[in-house]
Hints:
By secondary structure, this protein is of the alpha/beta class. It has 2 domains: 65-335 and 546-561, Aldehyde Dehydrogenase, Chain A, domain 1 (3-Layer(aba) Sandwich); 340-530, Aldehyde Dehydrogenase, Chain A, domain 2. It is built from 17 helices and 23 strands. It has a 7-stranded mixed sheet with strand order 14-17-18-13-12-20-21, sandwiched between helices. The longest helix is centred in the N-terminal third of the chain and has 25 residues, at 174-198. Residues 100-556 form the Aldehyde dehydrogenase domain.
Amino acid sequence: MLKLGLAVPPRWSFRCRRLGMASIRGEARISVDKQKASQLLKNEDQQEVEPDSQPSEDYPRIHRNESVLINHVIQEIQHRPLEVPTIIGDETVYTMDNQRVSCPHHLQTNLAHVYYANRKQIEAAIKSALSAQGTWSLVPIAQRLAIWRRAANIIEEDELRLRVFLMLTLSKTADDATRDIRRLLTALRANADYLEHLSELRFEIQGDMNVFPSFHLRPMDGFVAAIAPFESVALSTSLALCPALMGNTVLWNPSLEVAPVSFLIYKAFQEAGLPSGVINFVPANERLFLDTVTAAEHFAGLNTQASAPSYRHMHKLVSDRLERYICFPRLVAECPGQNFHFVHASAKVESVVSATVQAAFGFAGQYANSLSRMYVPSSMWPRLRAELLEATEQLIVGDPVELETDMGAMVHIEDYRRMQKLLQRTENMEQLCGGSCDDTTGRFVYPTIVQVTDPLDPLLCEPCCGPFLPVFVYSDESFSEALKLAANQSRYALSGSIFASRDEVILHCLNQLRMSASNLYVNERCTGSTNGLTPFGGNRLSGTNDKSGSAYFLMRWSSPLLIEETVDGAPPMHGSKRFP
C-alpha cells in the first residue's frame, strides 16, 4: 500500500520533542536561531528552554564562534579559489575552457574556476553513462537508498562550507543559504522515503488464481540529461539526483554560478559510494551541451529549469530529431511564472505586508516563484501602501556576509541589464520606492514598487527577474472583475496567493484562480513556506507541472515493468473451439 507523508507545522515539531515523540522521517530539519527558538517555546508554554542543552538529532549544533568559522572559510576560498573539473566516469578532466566565477556583490573577487567540457568530452560522458546503466539499473533499491541517506549526512556535516559558497557565489543572505541547504537535505531524505514507499506498491489484479503479477520500477532505456539553474542548489541537485535515484544514469550540467556548490555535493555522493558513471558531472556551454545530448540516439529524457523561450527551443530540437531516438524522450521543465498576490478587503494588513516583502524581494526577486504582481482593494490601499513602503525601505541591500543584510546583488549580468532598462522605462510611472541600481562594486538593484493604473499593462503579464513589484489597485465594487483579471491576464501559471479572512471569499477565489497557478497559497506568500518540502511546478507557460519534491516527480523517471507469471500453464481461452 502506498504511504503518504504529511507536512507537520514547525510548532508541532517543538511540541513533539517536548513530549518525547519521535520526529517524522523526511520532515524538514530547520536551523533555528537560539533566541528565536527560546522565544517561540516561551510564548507557547511560558517556560524558558535552553536549546544548547542536549542538542537534538533534528538540529545541528550551533557553534558559538560560527562567525569566526565563516570568516575563516571565506578567506580560504578567496586565497585558493575552488577548481571545478569535468568528471566523466572515474576520470577528472581539466579542459582549456576555464570559466571564472566571481562574487555578484564584489565583482573583483574570484571564487572558483570551472573547466567547461567540449563536444568530445560530452560525447565521452554519454558513453560513460550508457556503460554504467546496465549495472546501476540492477542495484537493489535498498542500496540506492543507503547511498542517498549517507550522502545527506555527509552534506550536513559540511553545511557551513556549502552555506558560505552560496553566500559568495549567489549573493544569498545567511538565512537564504541555510534554508536552501535545509531544503536540499529534506529533499534527499524525503525522496529516499518516497522511493521506499513506491517500492512497496502492490497491484490487485482481478482474474485467475494462478496468475501472479509483479510490478518493477525500471529505469528508462537510455540516459537522462539535467540542465540545472542557478537560483537554488536544492533544485539544481534534484534535477540530476531524482532520475539517478530511480536507476537512471545522468549527465549533470549545472549553470556556472551554482557549479562550485554542485561539485561539492557531487563529491559527497562519491564519498557515500555512488558508482562511477552513474552521474557524470559535465559543466559546459548550455547550447553546446543541449545540441550534443539531443543528437545521441539513446537520449531518454531532459530534466531542466529554463525560460519559456528556452524550453520551446529544447522541445523543437528534440521534436526535429525524434526519428533518431530508440524511445520517446521525456521532457520535464519548470519555467518562471508571473506570480501574484490577490488581496481581499477582509485580509489582515500585517500579514499581507510581511508576505509581500519577503516574496518580492527575497533573493533579490530572482526565484522562479518570486512575487511579480499584486492586486489590492482601494479601501485597504492607503494603509497597506504606508506599511509596505515602510517595510521595504527598511531593507538593507549589500554584502550578504554581513548579518544585517536583507538582500544581496543580482547574479546574472543579463538580468541586471534587463532591470536597468525596466527601471528606465518606468521612470514616468508612479514609483513608490526604489527605482535605482548600482554596479560600482556589485550588481545591486534597490527594491522597487510601482503602482500600475492600466489593468492591461505588460508589467502585469510578463515575468520579471529582479526586485521589482507592480501593484494594481482595484475598486472594492469591482472585486469579481479584478479576480477575473488576475486569473486570465498572464500566460504563466506557477504560483499565487490569496489573502482574505472570510471562508466564502477564500473558496470563491480558489475556484476562480485554480488554473492560474499550480501552487496556490492562502494567507501565505507565493514563494510558500520556508520550512519543509513543498511539491512544486507550474502549468501554462510555467512548465510541465511534474511537481518536483513529490513521489509523482520520481515516477516521471521510471519506465515501469509488469511481470505476470502463470503457474500450472496458461488458462484455457473460454469460448474457443480451437483452444479448449
